[in-house]
Amino acid sequence: MNIVMKTEFPDLKLIGRGKVRDIYDLDDKLLIVSTDRLSAFDVILPNGIEGKGEVLTELSTFWFDKTSHIVKNHLITTKIEEMPAEVHKYKDILEGRSMLVKKAKPLLAECVVRGYITGSGMKDYLKTGAVCGIKLPAGLQEADKLPSPIFTPSTKADVGHDESISYEKMCDIVGKEYAEKMRDYTIKIYTFASELALSKGIIIADTKLEFGLYENEVILIDEVLTPDSSRFWFADKYKSGHIQDSMDKQIVRNYLETLDWDKKAPGPVLPENISKETSKRYREIAGLLTAE
């Protein structure tokens, strides 16, 4: 299987190349292609992860369907034959890693929800007793489940670091009406998905969602509950007070933390064993979550 780091379709209009996705304008719709690029600490690494684009597309498609009773989403189809004729010639590249979607206007805040305390949230808590300004009970340990999920939005950066913001700041950015809907949808999706995932042996520690406006309605866009946007833990290995064995790109972050690297571009090349293990974990989580 070839690793796709970026796409080049000369007769299609490229309008965006994000950390992972290439976006093409098809008049009143968009073609979103998930590449195998991997970003860590908001830096795109030189080598990709085999099969990653397919996993992101498979999982997003699965969760768009499962959460459609909570909020509408932008997905039209992932089937190449149902897409406009001009993309058919690129089927070999697009198959399994592309989505035809509604052309929504992105709402420029990322919706982060945390059900467990870990990562940057744990660092914040140890310093302040709070996460993103939200006061939490004293005495929480690494990976503890929170009394209830907390909403901790951030800025949306195509390049560089996303930064945590208060809910009030989010209201200033997108407007109070939209902020309320985004927050409520995020917590509902997380609550629903967490229960479904747990029934398959997976804990969703936290996740990040994005929303947009389509025909004056807030809809879910981008990706949903993938290893790029979420922390997944094995439920049967979970143990409070310890760093968990993650089923996402944490293996890459852990490796990078051992290097003398300032977390600025250009990023280091990943060793083959780290790339292969990451690919294996991405496929494993997709298999577990989508199994009926």
From TrEMBL:
CDD domains: SAICAR_synt_Sc. Its EC number is 6.3.2.6. One of its GO terms (molecular function) is ATP binding. Residues 15-265 form the SAICAR synthetase/ADE2 N-terminal domain. It catalyses: 5-amino-1-(5-phospho-D-ribosyl)imidazole-4-carboxylate + L-aspartate + ATP = (2S)-2-[5-amino-1-(5-phospho-beta-D-ribosyl)imidazole-4-carboxamido]succinate + ADP + phosphate + 2 H(+). Keywords: ATP-binding, Ligase, Nucleotide-binding, Purine biosynthesis. PROSITE patterns: SAICAR_SYNTHETASE_2. The keyword Manganese does not apply. One of its GO terms (cellular component) is cytoplasm. Pathway: Purine metabolism; IMP biosynthesis via de novo pathway; 5-amino-1-(5-phospho-D-ribosyl)imidazole-4-carboxamide from 5-amino-1-(5-phospho-D-ribosyl)imidazole-4-carboxylate: step 1/2. GO terms for biological process: 'de novo' IMP biosynthetic process. NCBIfam families: PRK13961.1 (NF010568), purC (TIGR00081). Belongs to the SAICAR synthetase family. This is Phosphoribosylaminoimidazole-succinocarboxamide synthase. It comes from Mucispirillum schaedleri ASF457. The lineage of its organism: Bacteria, Pseudomonadati, Deferribacterota, Deferribacteres, Deferribacterales.
